Amino acid sequence: MEYIVKGDIAYNKSLNEFESIHNGYLHVKDGKIVKAMKSLPKELKKKKLIDYTGKLILPGMADLHLHASQFAYKGTLMDVTLLEWLDKYTFPREAAFKDEKHAKKAYKVFVDCLKKSFTTKAVIFATIHLEGTYILCELLEKAGIDAYVGIVDMDRNCPDYISQTVEGARKDNIELIKRLKDFKHVKPCITPRFTVSCTDPMMKMLGEVRKEYGVASQSHLDENEEEIAFVKELCPDAKSYTDTYDRVGLLDHSVMAHCIYVTDEEMKTLKEKDVYLVHCPESNTNVTTGGIMPVRKYLDYGMHVGIGSDVAGGSTLNLFANLKLAIQLSKVINHGGRNNYKPLNAKEALYIGTLGGASYFGKAGSFMEGYDADILVIDDVKGDPSSMKFGIEDRLERLMYNANESFLVAKYIDGRKVYERK
Ligand code: GUN
Ligand code: FE
Q1: If you measure from the C-alpha of residue 257 to the centroid of ligand 2, how many angstroms do you get, rounded to a whole number?
Q2: Is there a single domain that holds both residue 80 and residue 171?
Q3: Is residue 357 located within the same domain as residue 373?
Q4: Nearest ligand atom owner, CA of 70
Q5: Whether 215 and 234 share a structural domain
Q6: Cα of 383 to ligand 2 centre, how many Å?
Q7: Residue 24: CATH number of its domain
Q8: pLDDT digit string (tens) for 63-88?
Q9: pLDDT classification of 385: cutoffs 50, 70, 90
Q10: pLDDT tens-digit profile of 174-187?
Q11: Of the candidates 285, 346, 347, 405, which lies 20 to 30 Å from 330 by C-alpha distance?
Q12: Overall number of domains in the chain
């Protein structure tokens, strides 16, 4: 499949390299980007042209952290701290996914909404249940959304009705890995909920399964000070919260949500282990006693930073809303200049939402040659025709502050159109 997409193209080549082309052309072949260019060479003039003149053409966004099973209650039940929130609201609701009929219904709503969002790549928590998790994987695969999905493992500090045995969790994880072997879009991900929820034998077993099958892994890290103190109590022999994952092989090239209260020593380890740190700004301002990730500090240190909606800690799948908040919080955390953290700008925010996180999936999140053809076509002029006089950079900033999902005209993943606005 080969075609050309025409429109106002913007993308990052790296954190500090931003490209934009007014009335540009994007050459797509076999699900990959060939090239973004200013004009169409003669030999391409006969190819199929999809004309989105006047629309913004951006790389698809990566939601590096969200809980599909929590989608139904996003935007509610935010009146408590993290650990209370889990006990009181989350565990009973996740337990309902034992019922496959419930899982089918709830995950269908979730995947339908994800299809209409700006997200093309996602790293997802399901629940403790194998069958429910597999149902979610099938729906994502059918929708053509690239995702890592994990059974959420837990065997302590949770009610019996949502607790596994180490052996049961081992079998279920291996079974999911086997069932996903021939999936094109969905891949398994070892997912200890967080150290608070997993005994040492559980963590050790998950590390072994990960090593044996060579799969991805994800978890939560340093989200809340109460959580961190609890981990210290539970794992007195670990060097740090980060070490509780590292010592069992669950840190290396993993995705770690939140990473707010990271010590200098942990920071060093996270960089050495090539970890993807997920900024979940909306969640961190909802689930009380969260905090603000020092994004600038991590970027300056050369670490991977992506964005996460963290539904239902976060109330929306809209990653532009999260990037807007990331920009705003980068100013708040600077604390009137006292912290010397340069605020993020819109181009850097776009990087975090695209290439910064999507590179966990390989060549994704940009329009450089050989990258996955994940393309968003966005009507940013909606309701304001006068705005065409703005340049692409200004339009990008304005989009970040204003976008909702009705701005999305079409979405392509791996070159295939998965959504089109009616
Ligand atoms: N830490 C452990 N589980 C969760 C969860 O479901 N959401 C959030 N935000 N943090 C967690
Ligand atoms: Fe989370």
Answers
A1: 6
A2: yes
A3: no
A4: 1
A5: yes
A6: 35
A7: 2.30.40.10
A8: 999 999 999 999 999 999 999 999 99
A9: low
A10: 999 999 999 999 99
A11: 405
A12: 2
